[in-house]
Amino acid sequence: MLMQLYLLLILQLSSCFSVETKSKLTFDEFFNYTTFPLLRFSPSGRHLLIQTKRPSWKTSSFENTLWLYNIQNQTKKLITTNLHKSIKAHWSPSGNFIAIFPKNYSLVNKTNDSQNKQQSEQYIYLYSLILNELLPIQIGKDTPLAFTWSNNDSSLYLASINLGSTTEENDSYKDEWIDVIQYRKNIMRRNVTIYRIDLNLNNRSFVVERNKIRNVSFLIDRLLYVSFKEKLILSSVSALIETLDDFELYSIDLRNTSVLSKLTNNEAYELELQLSIDGQHILFRTFTLSSNKGKFNNTQYRLYSLNLLNEQITRLGENFRGSISGYTVKSDSGVYILGQLGTEVHIYTQQSPTANLIHHHGWNGTYESIVSSRTNGSIAFVYSSLDKPMEVYLINYIDQLKSAQTITN
Q: How far is CA 305 from its chain centroid?
C-alpha cells in the first residue's frame, strides 16, 4: 500500500514538471499593446470600421490606424495610418464613403518670420468603397473640431476655429506670459463657426461649396444631425474648467439658425452622443464635474436619454449600482449597456427606461466597448481579461457571448 502511494506521488510530481508554462511578458510587449478607440458598423451592416492605437516610440507619439473589416469575406483592409486621434471617422448615410480627418491637419506654411505664420489649406478625406481610394476635399483654412453627415452623401456639417487670428497663437506672447489672467481669458474666448459643406459627387475633383450656418462662443466637442427636426445637436467643452456651464448640450434649428437652444443644465460632461432608432431621442453618457453650488461630488458615469419632442431627460440603468462605461443602441430600440461592478465590466440589456437590466453572462473580465448594427443586429465588442489581451470580437446574437471569436490579432 505504501509503495502504491509512493508511486502515485512520483507520477503527480512528474506530471506537474512536464506542464508547459507560458513565457513571461517582456517590457517591450507590455508597452506595445494595442487599444481600439473606435468600432463602427456600416449602414448596411456588411462592414465594420476598426481604429487601432499603439505607441510609436520613434516619433514619441501614438499611431492611429483605420481598418475596414468585411464581415462576409472575413477580410481586413488598411485604410490609413495617419488618422486624427480625436476626430472620429464617420460612415456616410449610404455607406459608400467614410469621412476621415488626417493626423497632420494643423500644419502651417513656415516663413522666415516665425510670428507671421499662415495656416495651410485643410482637408477632409473621403474613402470610397466603390473606387477603393482616398479622395481629398479642401475645406478651407480653419482648424476642424467636429463634424457630422447630413441625411445624404451630398453634404456634411463642420465646426471649425481659426487659430491663426487668436492671441495665444503669437509665440512671443505665449512665451512671455506677461499677463496670466489675460492669457486665460484669451484661451477661453473662442469663436467657432459651423458650416455646411456641400459636395458635388458627380465631379471627380469633388468641388465643394461652404455655407456658413452660424457662430458660437464656445468650443464644440461633438456634432449630431437630427433629420426629423432639422436640427444640429452639439456638445460644448472648454480648454479650461472655469465654470460648469461650459459643458452642456445645445441645439440649432437649421430652419432658423439664429435660434440656439440650451438642452441641459446638469453640471456634467456629456459624451458619446447617439441618436435613437426612431430619431426622436439623443442618448449620452455623463461624468459629473465638481460644483461650486454644493459639496464636491465625483459620481460614476451614467446614461441618459433626451426626448427631442419635449426636452425631458430620463436616466437609463437607474437601478444599476455600478458605473456605466459604455453603451450602444440596439436595432429594436433598446440599449446594450457596459456596466462596471468592482473590477469587471459586463454587458447588460435595457429595453425601456422603466424595464429592469438583463445581465448577459459572458466571460469574466472587461468588455471595453460595444457597437450594434442597426440593420441586422450584429454585435462587435472589445474584450480583455487577466490572461487575454484586448481584441475585437464579432457575434450575430447576444447569446453567443461565450462562443465569440476574435477578428483581430
A: 18
Residues 6+ apart with CB under 8 A from 271: 221, 222, 235, 284, 285, 286, 287
Per-residue pLDDT tens for 49-81? 999 999 988 888 899 999 999 999 999 999 999
For residue 324, which of 369, 365, 354, 291 has the smallest C-alpha distance?
Answer: 369
Sign of CA dihedral 324, 326, 331, 333: positive
From CA 402, how far away is CA 167, in angstroms rounded? 56
Taking Cα atoms as reference points, which of 174, 171, 187, 186 lies closest to residue 111? 171
Cell of 18: 512536464
The CA distance from 170 to 116, in Å, is 9
Note the pTM of the prediction, 2 decimals. 0.84
Q: Cα 71 to the chain's mean position, in Å? A: 21
Rounded CA separation 143/148 (Å): 15
CA-closest candidate to residue 219, choices 195, 236, 196:
236
Q: Distance of CA 82 to CAs 52, 62, 150, 218, Å?
A: 11, 10, 25, 28
Residue 196 has which C-alpha cell?
455646411
